[in-house]
Amino acid sequence: MKHPKEEELIAYHDGEAAGREGIAAHLGDCPECQAELARIDALLAALNTIPVPEPEEDYGQRVWQQISPRLPQRRAHWWDFLFSEPKTVPWLAPRRWVAAGGIAALVLAAFVAGRFSRSNGPSTPVAVDASKVRERILVMAVGEHLGRSEMVLVELANSGPENAGQKQVNISGEQRRAEDLLEENRLYRQTALEQGDSGLAEVLDELERVLLDVAHSPQQVTPVQLEGIRQRIEARSILFKVRVVGKELQQRSESGNAPATPSGSAKSERNKV
Amino acid sequence: MNRMRPSVETTLESDAIAVERTLAGDRDAFRVLVERHSRNVYRLAYRMTGNQQDAEEVVQEAFLRAYQKLSQFASRANFGTWVYRIAANYAIDRMRQRKSEDSNRQQPAKETEEGAEVDLMSTIPDGAPSPERLAQSGQLAVQMRLALSQLTPAERTAFVMRHWGGSGIEEIADALKSSTSAAKNTVFRSVQKLRKALEPFVERRGQARAMGTEL
Questions:
Q1: How far is A52 from chain B (nearest CA, A)?
Q2: What is the distance between the alpha carbons of residues B35 and B37, in angstroms, rounded to a whole number?
Q3: What is the mean pLDDT of chain B?
Q4: Which residues of chain A register pLDDT less than 50?
Q5: A78 at the B interface (CB within 8 A)?
Q6: What would the mean pLDDT of B109-117 be, rounded to a whole number?
Q7: Across the A/B interface, how many CB contacts are shorter than 8 Å?
Q8: Where residue B208 falls among pLDDT bands split at 50, 70, 90?
Q9: Closest in A49, A144, A151 to B132, CB measured
């Protein structure tokens, strides 16, 4: 075989498969090409020594702070008015979707109002419709809440030291989100209990314990502590339960039917885990 | 069970959930993606632009563009690779813009012996001199930065993506908006130019090492 071209040797260095065997065989017998390849290796190795400043652990959070005010809202939901800036209704304190409390309290208030209206006289078709709308709001809101909780749990499952020498792992982002979700979770659990949805209340109760565990962990944990948190999450199979219930709520929300109690099949699926 | 790094599958799964939720209107879901991928995108951006200020701008712009184009993102693709490519694309534009600004000011983009890009030198950690530090303190470090700065934006992008980002030719072609054969040529040309500019210095260092006189 004639000497490979410079281009082919560079591609060989880069691990390209085309013509690899032929070049390898040639290199075994050709000191000239061996030397040429060694020069390419040395050059690229030298370039690897150019330092790149390592971004800090919280760099991603900093980027988010810088760009988030510039991100347009992707899609407006019809219930967005509940937590928009209260220019005309100052008592509706604006809370961020993830900051919990606000929306949950409003949904709860809507439910309480609904229960009062039902108990104070015979139901009219209008009252029944209003109740259904309120129930759908709760179904959608809890569905969103479970989606966000799922994300935090998956995040934790993904956390880990970047190398064997790293002694601490920063979970402050997950911790902050778990704190945000806790208050919201408590309100939804109480509402589910009041509505007699004990299956949903049970899952929310288990989720609350996990969120508490995460929220009360130190911001920096050792790999062993992190593994402990993960094992507690896994022991409760909470991620699976959250997904099952989330899916069920999504189906309820899409079908427009909001049964007061969970379907038997969904309940039995939850109970499997 | 020892889990040192998240598996590719769980990261992809978590990314896919975040993308889906962002598209459904939950803007905060995008935060997960930003927090997870920013550092990686920064490393690419820094290698491409060669300075901290431009690198940070590239990172921000890449995520803003990713958010705007998210509906075009194929849900089964890898978000990390996708945003990396958007960053590479923007970095090329940024470098071209810088070059044109420099030429308008009639300031040749040449570095002095002390190095015009001061932040590169200042990032070398203090402490005992490692072989890398010794290499950086010498003339080779200055020459390497000079040689990289003299590549065209496309060549620099191709080189960084290929040799530091481990990108495939198709991915590079996509970032350069060229054919795969053109991208291959650009990678080759970049290495060829770097060899021409740097091999005398690399060989000199090799000889100095062999003689135990490297500083």
A1: 7
A2: 6
A3: 78
A4: 75-107, 109-127, 258-273
A5: no
A6: 43
A7: 161
A8: low
A9: A49
